[in-house]
Each structure stands twice: as structure tokens, then as C-alpha cells.
Amino acid sequence: LTDDELDRVVQESHERVVPAGGFVVRRGEPADHWIGVIDGLMKMSVSLPDGRVSTFTGVTAGGWGGEGSLLTPGCWRYDGVALR
Fold this sequence. Notes:
Elements: H1 3-12, E1 23-25, E2 35-36, E3 41-47, E4 53-60, E5 64-65, H2 67-71, E6 79-82
Antiparallel strand pairs: 1-6, 2-5, 3-4, 3-6
């Protein structure tokens, strides 16, 4: 990144602490950011009509998620839940 691009990333970033079991993102809410995990673990999953949950990935500390949702404007198509 150029210095200007890095400055923009820093200015537009914010940190939010999500306790274990809390939602990082919720299916159906506007997908207007991407997610970096500083500490802990986040699972990305969908709830199926029969009540089962299908988890398709986990994001560990230092990882990123949600960038695909930014490329196809709209709402989150899954839930992101903090596990720890």
C-alpha cells in the first residue's frame, strides 16, 4: 500500500471487542466492511431451515474474513460468531 492508502485504512478502521458467543456480523445485515480478527476465533456459519447449523470456515487471530461479501454488494449471507 502507498502511504496515502495505509493512512486511509488506519483512519477508517475501528476495533470492537466481541465476547465469546457474540455476533460479529449477522446474516441479513448490510455487508459494508471486512473483518480482521486480532485475538480469538470467529466462525462463519449459516442456520439451515431445519435448525441445524452449517459452519463453513473459522477465522483465527491475524486472519481476515468477509471480503467476498464486499465484492457482491448486499447483506451478509452468514453469521459470524466469536468463539473465544
